[in-house]
């Protein structure tokens, strides 16, 4: 393929990417989705699911006490903006890498640097999610776990209930 035939395709790709970037930026300012849906969308940039919104929305089914719920809400209030910010940054950096990969002026070493930045941000998101996971593990009791696994099954998250949490009701 010659540069003359490649050039129009590059222009089309950049135009589409610019539209996607504008859409991402618009969603960052005013997401049209509720918080749970927005987190599901952002989960595509993370390896661990965002379960805290599911837990809070289903606190009655999970039978959280007021103290347990308050502990989880406090963690969310302290960390939500940072987690979402880091996840948005991962999405933005991924788009930058795709655009840069099409530019003959960008070196392979620069693309590696850009990818390393994405890895760093993904690690940051992972650390937040592991912190949340540790909090949930230390907050839940056996009854909460049973309710939580039932909620996950209803949400069709592909999780089976471990036998040790199946109660004999």
Structural overview:
The chain has seven helices and no strands. With 169 residues, the chain is mainly alpha-helical.
Outline of this structure?
By secondary structure, this protein is mainly alpha-helical.
Task: Provide the low-confidence segments as ranges.
Answer: 1-31
Mean pLDDT: 78
| Termini gap | 68 Å
Beta-strand residue percentage: under 5%
Features:
169 residues, mainly alpha, disordered N terminus
Task: Set down the secondary structure blueprint.
Layout (H helix, E strand, L loop, with lengths): L2 H27 L5 H8 L9 H6 L1 H4 L3 H36 L6 H32 L2 H13 L15
Helix pairs in contact: 1-5, 5-6
